[in-house]
Design a protein that fits this description.
The chain has helices spanning 3-21, 26-41, 45-53, 57-70, 80-88, 95-105, 162-177, 186-206, 210-226, 232-250, 256-280, 283-300, 303-313, 315-319, 323-337, 343-360, 365-384, 387-390, 399-412, 416-428, 436-452, 455-467, 476-492, 499-508. The chain has 523 residues and is mainly α. The chain has 24 helices and no strands.
Length: 523
């Protein structure tokens, strides 16, 4: 133990001793420890509770393991290192571990420094909810602001006769204790049956079946498959309807395992919605969806999912003119992924390479070398991904996407010959129904031709691409790339005879002729 930790423990011990002498509860002592130690030692609320009980990390771990065993669950993976990370604020416990930490300390999440109620839906001071105490096995009966059932603010009391049924049983029990010989009558049986029915109603209304969750998860995966070949507005409607169904299920208390699955789906659907909003040109809503996705992903404790949402969010500043923020988010995604083989391990360095190219322009050797090193890391990470993720273009990362994004980065770096070769290979890997990425690839190839000086071929490629787009397949982000080709031709060969025809084809399709926002390209 370091000198700083020793001083923190000594001060907490003094506060605890005075609190016990004054008859204060563990929760009250924990709050005092937090108030006295947080400014000096950075003590968190969750650590304050352990210090208030006067126990070591190992004692808390054993208590949580005992609670898991009591509930018939396999031994948890939590250890002293993870608990220490919670206490230092480096990590946030997932919904299940947070529930058991609350159970062990007999408090609600806000007392431990976390927002919102526990997913179990009831107070953790209820008799029978937690068996045994961290100190001496006696239940903590001290009063608290959230003593029993958590009720929504402003909720009306139940009007279903539940209290009267309980009173019938209480009177019957008192008569039995007094030695009265009473018979089992219809009133008692009616109250018993009524209470059983209400429990059934509660269980049915408070849970969603695993079969329904299976269907939602399959729908989410299906939406991911449709992303490449379905017009964005149509797909957005389908995704948001599913998003609403998941939200309604999450409004009620669910078992821990089902709640985690719901959070996972919410994160994926929010992330997919953010991707669609990028394509529709609304970067504000895209950022909002990614923020929602991060919140949901944090509840799962899944590093790969959190990293995926962050990597996807990095595309917003990448496409809307802030490559420096895109670079920072890509690095954050890489850190979140850690050593876990996942899609974000590939996506993050690809975004880094594209952001570097945008920040420093083309042709600078040090930037080219740095970006190529990032692309090399992406290829190495791709080889470590599972086959399932390599086949998923939305929630995973495919080989064709890797070719496309490498080519896009090389175009921005001015490496026209190498980029054109890679982009040509990328096109061969897409099917006839895929339109989004192949369209971007064709515009990238047009830019390669401009860099090589073949302006006629560049305009021919871009013009064919624009004419081949249906009305529902012209999102803002795509048409901005079409305008960029025209602007680059104008810079390269002012007044080119074919440029006027090309720009007229854009206007005839209802696209804006205003200057595009800096670099909205790619998916």
């Amino acid at each position: 133990m370091s000198g700083r930790q020793h001083r923190e423990t000594e001060l907490a011990r003094q506060v605890r001793a005075r609190g016990l002498a004054a008859g204060k509860s563990s929760a009250q002592i924990a709050e005092e420890i937090y108030e006295k130690c947080s400014s000096q030692f950075g003590t968190t609320r969750i650590k304050g509770h352990r210090l208030a009980h006067g126990v070591a990390l190992a004692d808390v771990i054993e208590q949580i393991r005992a609670l898991f065993e009591r509930d018939g669950k396999a031994a948890p993976g939590i250890g002293e290192t993870l608990l220490s990370a919670y206490e230092s604020g480096l990590k946030r416990p997932g919904p299940e571990y947070l529930h058991y930490l609350c159970s062990a300390y007999r408090v609600e999440p806000p007392s431990l420094g976390y927002d919102g109620p526990c997913i179990c839906g009831h107070g953790h001071k209820m008799p029978g909810v937690v068996r045994g105490d961290l100190q001496d096995g006696r239940p903590d009966t001290s009063p608290g602001p959230r003593e029993l059932l958590i009720q929504p603010i402003g909720a009306d009391p139940p009007a279903d006769g539940g209290e009267e049924d309980e009173n019938v049983l209480r009177r019957t029990l008192l008569q039995l204790l007094a030695g009265s010989g009473i018979a089992l009558d219809g009133q008692v049986l009616g109250s018993v049956e009524s209470m059983r029915r209400r429990m059934d109603d509660t269980l049915v209304s408070a849970t969603v079946s695993p079969a329904m969750l299976d269907q939602w998860e399959e729908s989410t995966i299906g939406f991911g498959r449709q992303y490449m070949n379905t017009p964005p507005l149509r797909l957005l409607c389908d995704v948001m309807l599913e998003f609403a169904a998941v939200r309604k299920a999450m409004e009620r208390h669910q078992p821990v395992d089902l709640q985690e699955r719901l959070c996972r789906m919410a994160a994926k659907l929010a992330g997919l919605s953010g991707m669609i909003m990028i394509n529709l040109g609304d970067h504000r809503l895209a950022r909002s969806f990614f923020r929602t996705g991060r919140t949901a992903a944090d509840e799962t404790g899944d590093r790969a999912l959190r990293a995926w949402v962050t990597a996807r969010e990095a595309l917003v500043p990448l496409y809307y003119g802030d490559p420096r923020e895109a670079l920072n988010l890509a690095k954050k995604s890489r850190d979140l992924a850690g050593q876990t083989p996942c899609a974000a391990q590939v996506m993050a360095p690809v975004v880094e390479a594209r952001a570097l190219a945008m920040m420093s322009g083309s042709g600078k050797k040090d930037v080219v070398d740095q970006a190529k090193r990032a692309l090399s890391r992406a290829r190495a990470a791709f080889s470590q991904m599972s086959a399932t993720e390599q086949d998923d273009s939305t929630f995973g990362y495919t080989e064709r996407q890797l070719y496309f994004h490498q080519g896009d980065a090389l175009v921005k770096l001015g490496q026209a010959m190498e980029a054109d070769l890679i982009l040509e290979q990328a096109l061969t890997k897409y099917g006839p129904t895929d339109w989004l990425d192949p369209t971007f690839i064709k515009f990238d190839r047009a830019q390669c031709k401009i860099l090589e000086g073949d302006v006629d071929e560049a305009l021919e490629i871009a013009h064919r691409t624009v004419l081949g787009l249906d009305e529902s397949c012209r999102p803002d982000i795509l048409m901005q790339r079409a305008h960029e080709v025209g602007k680059q031709v104008e810079v390269k060969v002012p007044g080119h005879p074919k440029l006027k025809t090309y720009m007229e084809s854009l206007r005839s399709r209802g696209t804006s002729t205003e200057d595009p926002v800096t670099d909205r390209s790619g998916t």
